[in-house]
Amino acid sequence: MIIFRYLLKEVAKTQLAVFLVLMTIFISNKFVRILDDAAEGGIPGHLVMVFIGLKIPDLAGMILPLSLFLGVLLAYGRIYADSEMTVLHACGVSEWYVVRVTLILSFVTAIFTGIFTLYLSPMASEYEYQVKEQLAADSGLSSLIAGRFQTTGNEKAVIFIHDKNRDDNTFEKVFVAQLPDKKATDKSIINASLVYAQTGQVIEEESGSQRLVLSDGTRYQNDTKSKEFKEVFFDKYYIQIQDQKVAHKNRKLRAIPTQDLFEEDTAAFSAESHWRIAFPIACLIMTLIAVPLSVVNPRQGKFAKMLPALLLFLGYFLMLTAVRSGVESGTIPKNLGLWPVHFFVLVLGVSLLIKDRSFGMKFKAKLPLLFRNFTRKGTSS
C-alpha cells in the first residue's frame, strides 16, 4: 500500500503541475486575443473574464490527456534516474504493477476528461454563442463606447459619442453619419447625412428594433441636384440603428449536446461524437505508452525519452485529426470513425509493454520462424 500511494502521489502531483502550467500558457494566449477583441470594441470589457471562463472546459478536455502523459514520463523518469525503480523491482514490484497503478490514475483522469469534452465543453460553447448573439442584437447602450467611432447593428450609420451617462442611459454630444443606401450607385461619403446633437438615447421597441433618439441638434445633408449642403435644426430626430432581433444562427457542431450527436446519423455528427470520446480514451491508451517509455538509464537522465514520447503523442493527435476530417468528408465510413487510430496506438502500447517480458521475448524469438514458415507455404502453393 505504501508503494501504491507513493507511485500515485508522484504521478498525480507531477500531472497537476504540468496541467496548471499548460493551462496558464493557453489561457494567457486566449486572454490576449479576447482582450484585443475588447480593445477594438468587439465585446464589452466586463465580459472579458466571461469569455475566458467559457474557454476553460474546452482547453481542459484537451490538456488533461497531455498532462497525464507528461506527468507519467516525468515522474517515473525521475524515479528511474534516481535508481528508485531499480530498488522497487528488486523488492518484487513488477512493471505490470506500475502499469496497473498508473491505469487507476488514468481512469480517474479519463472520467474528468469525459465530463469536460462530453458535457461542459458543449454547454460552454452554446452559452458563448448565446452571449455573442445577445451582443450582436444589442447594438445600443452596451456596445456604444465613448470616444470611438462605431457602426450600428444594421450597418446604416456610424456613431460617435463624446460621453455616456450610465445613470439615465443617455449620451452627450452625439455625432452620426447616416451612410448611403447599399443599393445606391454613388456611395461616396459626401452623400451621407451628417447629424450632430447635444444629447441622445437608445429606445428598444417590442419588435426588437432599436432607435436612436437625438435631441437639440443639427442635420447636414448634401443636395444631389444643387450640390449644396442643407442645414436643418431639430428638437427630436429618430434614427433606426437595429432593424430587428438577430436571427438564431446555426450552431457549430462543438456546441451541440453529445446526446443529440448520437441521435443524428450523419457523417459530421459522427465525426464530432467520435472526437469527443477520443480524449478520454487517449488517457487510457497513452498510459500504456508512457509507462514503458519512462524507463531510462540513470546515466541518461529523466528527459532521455521525452522527445520521442512527445513525437508519438503528436502523431497520435494528428492521426485523430486527419481521420476526423476523413469521416466528415465521407471518405472514411462514419461507423468506423476514429477506432482504427485508437486500435493502432493500443497495439503499439501493448507491444512496448511486453517486449521486455518473457512472453514478448519468446514471441520475438519465434517471429522469424513464423515468417519463414509463412513464406514457404506461400511459395509451395
UniProtKB/TrEMBL annotation:
It is a multi-pass membrane protein. Keywords: Cell inner membrane, Cell membrane, Membrane, Transmembrane, Transmembrane helix, Transport. The chain crosses the membrane at residues 16-35, 47-76, 97-120, 277-296, 303-324, 336-354. It comes from the Bacteria. Its main location: membrane. Component of the lipopolysaccharide transport and assembly complex. The LptBFG transporter is composed of two ATP-binding proteins (LptB) and two transmembrane proteins (LptF and LptG). Part of the ABC transporter complex LptBFG involved in the translocation of lipopolysaccharide (LPS) from the inner membrane to the outer membrane. This is Lipopolysaccharide export system permease protein LptF. It comes from Colwellia hornerae.
